[in-house]
Amino acid sequence: MTDTLTDQILDRGAVLLLANTGKPQTLVGCELEELDLSDIVLNGWVFDQCILKKSKFTSAKLEKAQFIGCKGGQADFTSAALGEAKFTGCDFNNTRFRGAHLTQVKFQRCKLTGADFSQARTFDIVFEECKLNDARLANTSFAKQTLKQLDLHNADLNRCDFRDSVFEDCSLRDAMLDHARFEGADLRGTDIGGVRLDDAKRFKGATISRAQAAELLAELGLKVR
To answer: Which of 115, 119, 116, 113 is CA-nearest to residue 139?
Structure first.
């Protein structure tokens, strides 16, 4: 069980007092905009419909925390511990997750445009129905996952592992795919438009549709009839 605080404007001191009780808290409709919460232990906390724009969670402990319907554009989770955390229906556009611990984290129906996951530890991370266009996801493993409704347009997917993954209604349009791996992947449910010829070879071993094959061949100036 958690204690609940509703519709409050909080400062760092107030959050520290709550954290020092040692009991997880549920914040509903609270405002923490631009608040510096670096290094605070917030394991198991629930942030429900909270304003977290530009909030700073650098090196905070957020194991098993939940973020539900939060507005957190440009927040900073650099080096935060977020193992088994859940993000549902949130807006975290242009948020930094650099170097964060993201083992078994789940993002569902989230806006993550321009989010930076560079150097994050992303073992068993899951994204569903998320906007990840322009996100930095290099070196992330999606192997053997079913990827549902992910917009990865123009995302940095260099060295990502998509082996044996299944794409359902996704977009890889204009994504950066240097050294990405797709062996055994089913790409028939994804938009691969704008893929450079040098990248097309990275789909070796993957399954694509006839329409997708025609689109790739069109890059060579060939027509399929």
So the answer is: 119
214: pLDDT strictly greater than 90: no
pLDDT digit string (tens) for 32-89? Answer: 999 999 999 999 999 999 999 999 999 999 999 999 999 999 999 999 999 999 999 9
Give the separation between CA 52 and CA 215, rounded to whole angstroms: 42
Instruction: Tell me the two tokens of residue 156.
Output: 């940095």
pLDDT tens for 88-129 read 999 999 999 999 999 999 999 999 999 999 999 999 999 999
> What's the token pair of residue 57?
């969670």
145 belongs to a structural domain = yes
**Burial class (CB within 10 angstroms; exposed 0-12, middle 13-18, buried 19+) of 225:** exposed
- Alpha-carbon distances of 213 from 5, 119, 171, 195, rounded to whole Å: 55, 34, 16, 12
Domain count, the chain: 1
Q: Which helix (H) or strand (E) holds 146?
A: strand 146-148
Domain contains 215: yes
Classify residue 154: in a domain, yes or no: yes
| Domain enclosing residue 175, as ranges | 139-225
Alpha-carbon distance of 2 to 26, in angstroms, equals 6
Alpha-helical runs (H) found in the chain:
12-19, 197-200, 210-218
* Nearest by Cα to 54 from 27, 35, 80: 35
Does 220 map to a domain? yes
Distance CA 196, CA 134 (A): 17
Q: pTM of this prediction?
A: 0.91
